[in-house]
Design goal:
Layout: H1 14-39, H2 42-49, H3 55-80, H4 82-101, H5 106-134, H6 137-169, H7 173-176, H8 178-192, H9 206-223, H10 225-228, H11 235-257, H12 271-287, H13 291-301, H14 306-334, H15 338-355, H16 364-380, H17 384-392, H18 398-431, H19 446-451, H20 454-488, H21 497-510
Length: about 500
Amino acid sequence: MDMQLAPAPLVTDPRRRLILFFFLMTAMFMATLDNQIVSTALPTIVGEFGHLERFGWIGSAYLLALSAVMPVYGKLGDLFGRKYVMMTAIAIFTVGSAVCGLAVSMDTLIAARVLQGLGGGGIMVSIFAVNADLFEPRERARYQSYSSLVLMASGAIGPVLGGTMSDLFGWRSIFLVNVPIGFIALTGLAFMLPYRKPHRRPKIDYAGALLLALTTTSVVLATDSSELFGALISPESIGVVAFGVVCAVAWVFVERRAPEPIVPLQLFRNSTFSLLLIISIMGGAIAIGMVNYFALFLQTTTGLSPSAAGLFFILLTGGLVCGSLSAGRIISRTGRYKPFAIASLTCSAVAFALMSQVQAGTPIAFIGAIMLLHGIGIGLAQQVPVIGVQNAAPARDVGAATGSVTLSRMGGASIAISIYGAIIASGLGKSGVPIAGVADIEQLTPKMMAALPEASRQAVADIYAAAFASLFMTSCAIALIGLAAAVMLKPVQLPRAGEAKQLQAAAEAAE
């Protein structure tokens, strides 16, 4: 695809653009808040529906659907125009939220989360595309940074809001609150966002998108096979793995021949791209994948209420904001991102190693300090994979490269959630010790735990602490794999603004 001059902004009136941006941020806040807001309410949901072994799927189903459709929405926006694709995504998400709030069983809830994810993926992709239509390149950078702040705010507010709403109005309220917000965002965009008919008619790589989604789904199902099929190695799990391998091989075959592949395979020839993809997968596993389990850990091991556990996420997000803002400034000044990838994964590996030593009686302040350290670690490298691949990829493939990083991060989170769920279920299954007043440890809600006699509550906390020790050691190992990839990165220095323009001009001349 040849480089083209940027078209004029879609809306010229600055006030109207700001109002539109507000509606876009409302939709984005709703979609990104969704996974965070659920985290502190999950133990209560499990207490009502049972099926602790499917606990992870409430988060995993959303992330899996979100990551499967992300590459397709970008192409659909190019083909049919951003406005209606964006509005469709918000409508799907809103309907999914309503079904979640009215769920009658764990299976209904998981299916509704898939529907939410199918809309959420479109919201995330379409917002950045609509921003590109609304703002000129220089202005766009400033508004994209506001988008990042909204992402961070949802991380800070989500668990607190989820815990408080769950305590006050019941867990269904955290889903139903999206319905009026979705209607407001839809109405605002319907009346204020102009429709720009696209001139370009790209061929959408539907086969590539479907095969990529099936491959990712197969990997997640395979990691969860001990819970789904009763054993890690069973005829069903071997069948899932075989199906995944066939899909992966077919995907490579399709991508080689597609005129506009979802992920151009020549990107993998660059070692920087491949290493950053590994860092992104591991980063998703230890950052996004761990959110729900931190909430479960705090409520079962320390006995905190959902709203009190939510407050701990302020420390996590505070660390994330500090790490991210500091790293962003220093990277823009020095142009070097490798040191931040190394520092980030080192912080997280140390945090998880310390967390694995936490017992039921460990002081709350110590746990808070570890969460702050992990937050700083996540923040330091939050921008690194995107900055790195955008610099490493050819200009025509920047969009595909950025999409690949987002997809790999979400895919890493989905797979990790399944692995973590299997570890916790296995740890609780091994306990086998009867506890006074506890018929089924998996169906305990935080309120039920608080009502138990002290000895029983302590016994439950000890069983969960032992199960979580294995989980935290696993996430420490994941962080170390990412750290090895970070150490292997080339010490690249990003070009300055003037140099970037010269490089772009040279690339255009070569084409």
